[in-house]
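Example S7 (structure tokens).
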């Protein structure tokens, strides 16, 4: 995340409200794990987008974090009169070219899921993307999710290795 975007405490609060708005109906309802797929798929894409430095997904994740932070700062300033509270941000790790392919496959899967979903699930996917893009750059969350880009890299390397063995 670049310095111009700036993550704020109010932006994180907005992301947490979005996450709560998606999780609460599931918790109060049947708790069917399949009902979490739209939000979870979006969250995965949003979190992975934060490690896409220099690409459109990384730019979009930084823009989402900046947008939620700016909107949250404005709301808090208007409601209670306090200024923004800036937060540190970091990346979970880096992607290899093979890991980048895996992220592109995740993007394609989320796009297909979005296109085949109903209105409510589409909103859940978008909420997951926004939440993952914001929470994925928090230092504590990024530390806990350090395995995520590494897993994408390993899956990509496995796929590349598998592809090289098919011709032999």
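Recovered sequence:
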């Amino acid at each position: 995340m670049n310095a111009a975007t700036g993550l704020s405490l109010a932006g994180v609060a907005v992301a947490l409200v979005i996450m709560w708005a998606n999780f609460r109906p599931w918790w109060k309802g049947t708790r069917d794990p399949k009902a979490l797929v739209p939000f979870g798929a979006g969250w995965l894409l949003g979190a992975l987008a934060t490690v896409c430095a220099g690409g459109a997904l990384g730019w979009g994740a930084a823009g989402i974090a900046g947008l939620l932070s700016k909107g949250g700062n404005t709301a808090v300033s208007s409601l209670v009169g306090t200024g923004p509270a800036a937060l540190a941000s970091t990346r979970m790790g880096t992607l290899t070219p093979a890991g980048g392919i895996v992220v592109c496959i995740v993007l394609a899967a989320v796009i297909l899921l979005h296109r085949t979903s109903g209105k409510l699930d589409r909103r859940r996917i978008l909420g997951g993307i926004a939440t993952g893009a914001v929470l994925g750059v928090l230092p504590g969350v990024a530390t806990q999710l350090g395995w995520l880009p590494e897993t994408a890299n390993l899956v990509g390397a496995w796929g590349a290795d598998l592809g090289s063995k098919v011709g032999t």
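Notes on this example. The mean pLDDT is 94.
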